[in-house]
UniProtKB/TrEMBL annotation:
This is GTPase Obg. Coiled coil: none annotated. It comes from Alkalicoccobacillus murimartini. An essential GTPase which binds GTP, GDP and possibly (p)ppGpp with moderate affinity, with high nucleotide exchange rates and a fairly low GTP hydrolysis rate. Plays a role in control of the cell cycle, stress response, ribosome biogenesis and in those bacteria that undergo differentiation, in morphogenesis control. It holds the Pfam family MMR_HSR1. Belongs to the TRAFAC class OBG-HflX-like GTPase superfamily. OBG GTPase family. Its EC number is 3.6.5.-.
Length: 427
């Protein structure tokens, strides 16, 4: 089964907890703190595996949780770092954060890798908190929580040339005769339910990858038919080849077919209109094809090359392949996303840094404090130790949480909620 879009959950490993311990050695009076740091949690890392062709492996395994780091130990022994979780993906995989729409990675080359969910750092042991004023601290940090997110994986085939057109115009037949690919061929609509790839070699020994994409119909960019599922695969192609049934076997107008496909590509992604394109007038061996071709040329008001061919008899294919190879030599690489999306990502990060916490009043009247940085500090605090609690209170005061609560009208003794835990507000 060809799977080209899945949603998965990825979580980096939590860091190991820091240790609270003291030196207990003979002849060493007042040995002081000796708690080691926790190890770093593992990250979820995607790496491109050249042999993969679909996202089928993610259909039944959609949760990836990396292991946590080892806790610190006495005698200043640090916990071991966890090994990263390696997840293999096929070439052409784009990783998008579902919540923000941010493109996290565009993985196209074999061996290329990207960290999708970063592991948390290890918590510091009590030896890290020793000062002249407090030489024997009784506090340590819990490990930092690993990053967690839901991401959407989209596979966009890495093909140089994309064959587009209405169903049953001969795209699969054309691919089968110019390459070693064996796509399913039939005299009914939507015979092709998944894109097919084939390597084409010209007479002068130039080669390129051609993709036969499922048939498009009017309204495909809005989700009509099957073609909308595979429009994303056209985004990476450098040359677009329109295949048209010039014999009009199904009584469709070849020129209107061409205009419809052009409009669908434009509606889906305006940049697709910038690609070099060729028109293949297929089924020229059929009766009436010559008359339709002459009429098509009269109606076409743009300077686009037209190649009359017959995929069945292989007539005209040599010149077509030579011209495609020529176009590829000058065709540029096209970016996958607009620069405006990059600006959106920068603004999103800036806004997240600008607001370290937010305060709202819950339905039950309790003040709820939340925020990425605040919740990270909360999870890294060991609330079993009095000194760690006092340290957390000082951190909140330094962040301005106390002052913000007073501005919102919080009174002495009122409840404050952080995550699922409640505290009393003390003046």
């Amino acid at each position: 089964m060809f799977v080209d879009k899945v949603k998965i959950y990825a979580k980096g490993g939590d860091g190991g907890n820091g240790q609270v311990s003291y030196r207990r050695e003979k002849y060493v009076p007042d040995g002081g703190p000796a708690g080691g740091d926790g190890g770093r949690g593992a990250s979820v890392v995607f790496i491109v595996e050249e042999g993969l062709r679909t996202l089928m492996d993610f259909r039944y395994n959609r949760h990836f949780k990396a292991p946590k780091g080892e806790n610190g130990r006495p005698k200043n022994q640090h916990g071991a770092n966890a090994d990263d979780m390696i997840v293999k993906v096929p070439p052409g995989t784009t990783v998008v954060d579902e919540l923000t729409g941010q493109i996290l990675a565009d993985l196209t080359e074999a061996g290329q890798q990207a960290v999708i969910a970063k592991g948390g750092r290890g918590g510091r042991g009590n030896s890290r908190f020793a000062t002249p004023a407090n030489p024997a601290p009784d506090t340590a940090e819990n490990g930092e929580p690993g990053q967690e997110r839901e991401v959407v994986l989209e596979l966009k085939l890495l093909a140089d040339v994309g064959l587009v057109g209405f169903p049953s115009v001969g795209k699969s037949t054309l691919l089968s005769v110019v390459s070693a690919a064996k796509p399913k061929i039939g005299d009914y609509h939507f015979t092709t339910l998944a894109p097919n790839l084939g390597v084409v070699e010209t007479a002068d020994h130039r080669s390129f990858v051609m993709a036969d994409l499922p048939g498009l119909i009017e309204g495909a960019h809005e989700g009509v038919g099957l073609g909308h599922q595979f429009l994303r695969h056209i985004e990476r192609t450098r040359v677009i080849v329109h295949v048209i049934d010039m014999a009009a076997i199904e009584d469709r107008d070849p020129y209107q077919d061409y205009l419809s496909i052009q409009d669908e590509l434009k509606q889906y992604n305006l940049r697709l209109t910038e690609r070099p394109k060729l028109i293949v007038a297929n089924k020229m061996d059929m009766p009436g094809a010559e008359e339709h071709l002459e009429l098509f040329k009269e109606q076409l008001d743009e300077d686009t090359l037209i190649f009359p061919v017959s995929a069945l008899t292989k007539h005209g294919l040599k010149g077509l392949l030579q011209k495609i190879a020529d176009e590829l030599e000058d065709a540029p690489e096209f970016p996958l996303y607009e620069e405006a999306e990059e600006e959106t990502r920068v603004l999103y990060k800036h806004e997240k840094r600008k607001d370290p916490f937010i305060i709202i009043r819950g339905d039950d009247g309790v003040y709820e404090v939340s925020g990425v940085e605040l919740e990270r500090l909360f999870k890294m605090t060991d609330f079993q130790r009095e000194e760690s609690i006092r340290r957390f209170a000082r951190q909140l005061r330094k962040m301005g949480v106390d002052a913000a609560l007073r501005e919102r009208g919080a009174q002495n003794g009122e409840l404050i909620r952080i995550l699922n835990y409640e505290f009393e507000f003390i003046e």
